[in-house]
């Protein structure tokens, strides 16, 4: 670590504990062991990590992260780019992908997988600009469609996180896992659902109730405001239900940042200041921000092993689905169990994204035939789409 001595085994312990002891320890072992290499690789790709005065990568405290198996105090483990880490990674990796000979099918929306028994042969997609249908033949298909947060009224997820990838898997007769495990982030903006990053509390922000109390000291005396997200969300809900919420309806909590130096907020949390002003009209350097627990992350999804191969459970045994892989929030290697630790999502997508590539590289050879599609492959997807296109119910699908 840049900020203090750290060890991937301590990270593994925190992730297992944070998962409410329901995480797959093989997957967690793999992810945490690969984590330092992933950060170095991202830096080499050009991710503009924030720096310490000594020029090292700046690492931020996040909830549930500790040193020495929980006995060494708070860990500063999250390598950060101000408060725009994911945004910076996205653009850097997209820029890197342009170096390679890839075809991009922009505005194509995947509808269904093409299956032959328990083997995946590709997918059917619709071009949203033209309305044309296309079949994609592939020997290896990776599902990376995000989570299902938009199934909830208030969430922080992108508008594309509608669970369509999970639905494709279900329609193909395959299984889903742990769909009940949905994380509520403690600090969504009240009334809007937009995220106030955990980095706010990592930089020294804290939660207060209507009495001005830092109530997390009662629920998590050691970690306090940097307890794991499920603990903080439950604690906030208890405060509200017991009448100590803020606002006219006493139905939310305040996140206080204005005790921090304005220059620290400007350097480390520039995007948060802008978000708070847009959605609440408040200046974080002068007054607290109204927040409430909001749906943030889907721990459940498509069951996979740590090699990202999709699993099918039959007769008490797990078998892999030939040609099909899943990564990111769409997948469920159970690396997060029942609750994800802050910053482990970006780590998850980088580590298991590479794992998928490595797994396919071991199986695929240049010039391998992808097989052929029959004239009827994909018909079920078209029939399913036609049910929506030609239905005459009273509820408009565009509403």
Describe the structure.
It holds the Pfam family FAD_binding_2. Keywords: Flavoprotein, Oxidoreductase. One of its GO terms (biological process) is mitochondrial electron transport, succinate to ubiquinone. This is FAD-dependent oxidoreductase 2 FAD-binding domain-containing protein. The mean pLDDT is 95. The protein has a domain at 187-296: Alpha-Beta Complex (Flavocytochrome C3, Chain A, domain 1), CATH 3.90.700. The termini are far apart. It is of the alpha+beta class and 399 residues long. The chain has helices spanning 8-18, 25-45, 85-97, 164-171, 199-202, 216-219, 229-241, 262-268, 270-280, 344-363, 379-389, and strands at 59-66, 74-79, 108-116, 119-127, 133-137, 141-143, 182-189, 206-208, 253-256, 289-298, 302-303, 309-314, 317-326, 331-332. Helix 1 crosses helix 2 and helix 2 crosses helix 10 (344-363). The strands form 5 sheets. Strands 7-10-9-8 form a 4-stranded antiparallel sheet. A 3-stranded antiparallel sheet has the order 3-4-5. The protein has a 3-stranded mixed sheet with strand order 6-13-12, with no helix packed on it.
What's the architecture of one domain in CATH terms? Answer: Alpha-Beta Complex
Principal-axes shape call: globular
Helical region count?
11
Low-confidence stretches: none
If you average the pLDDT, what whole number results?
95
CATH T-level fold name of one domain: Flavocytochrome C3, Chain A, domain 1
The H/E string reads: HHEEHEEEEHEHEHHEHHEEEEEHH
**Largest beta-sheet details:** 4 strands, antiparallel
Q: Would you tell me the structural class of the helices and strands?
A: alpha+beta
């Amino acid at each position: 670590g840049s900020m203090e001595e750290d060890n991937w085994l301590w990270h593994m312990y925190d992730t297992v504990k944070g998962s409410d002891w329901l995480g797959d320890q093989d997957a967690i072992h793999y992810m945490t062991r690969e984590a330092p290499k992933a950060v170095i690789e991202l830096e080499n790709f050009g991710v503009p990590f924030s720096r310490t005065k000594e020029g090292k990568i700046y690492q931020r405290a996040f909830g549930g992260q500790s040193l020495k198996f929980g006995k060494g105090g708070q860990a500063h483990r999250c390598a950060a780019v101000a408060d725009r880490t994911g945004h910076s990674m996205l653009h850097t990796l997209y820029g890197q992908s342009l170096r390679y000979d890839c075809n991009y099918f922009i505005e194509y929306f995947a509808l269904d997988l093409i299956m032959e028994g328990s083997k995946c042969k590709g997918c059917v997609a619709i071009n949203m600009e033209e309305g044309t249908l296309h079949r994609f033949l592939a020997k290896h298909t990776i599902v990376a469609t995000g989570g299902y947060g938009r199934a909830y009224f208030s969430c922080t997820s992108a508008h594309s996180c509608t669970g369509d990838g999970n639905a494709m898997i279900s329609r193909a007769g395959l299984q889903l896992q742990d769909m009940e495990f949905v994380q509520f982030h403690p600090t969504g903006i009240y009334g809007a659902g937009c995220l106030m990053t955990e980095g706010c509390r990592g930089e020294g922000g804290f939660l207060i109730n209507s009495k001005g109390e830092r109530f997390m000291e009662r629920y998590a005396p050691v970690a306090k405001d940097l307890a794991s997200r499920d603990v903080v969300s439950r604690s906030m809900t208890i405060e509200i239900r017991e009448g100590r919420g803020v606002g006219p309806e006493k139905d939310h909590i305040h996140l206080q940042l204005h005790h921090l130096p304005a220059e620290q907020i400007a350097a480390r949390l520039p995007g948060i200041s802008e978000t708070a002003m847009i959605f609440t009209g408040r200046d974080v350097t002068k007054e607290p921000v109204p927040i409430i627990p909001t749906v943030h992350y889907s721990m459940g999804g498509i069951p996979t092993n740590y090699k990202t191969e999709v699993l099918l459970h039959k007769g008490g045994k797990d078998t892999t689905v030939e040609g099909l892989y899943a990564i990111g929030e769409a997948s469920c290697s159970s690396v997060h169990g029942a609750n994800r630790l802050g910053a482990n999502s970006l780590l998850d997508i980088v580590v298991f994204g590479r794992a998928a590539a490595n797994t396919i590289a071991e199986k695929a050879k240049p010039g391998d035939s992808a097989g052929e599609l029959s004239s009827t492959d994909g018909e079920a997807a078209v029939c399913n789409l036609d049910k929506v296109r030609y239905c005459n119910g009273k509820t408009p699908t565009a509403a």
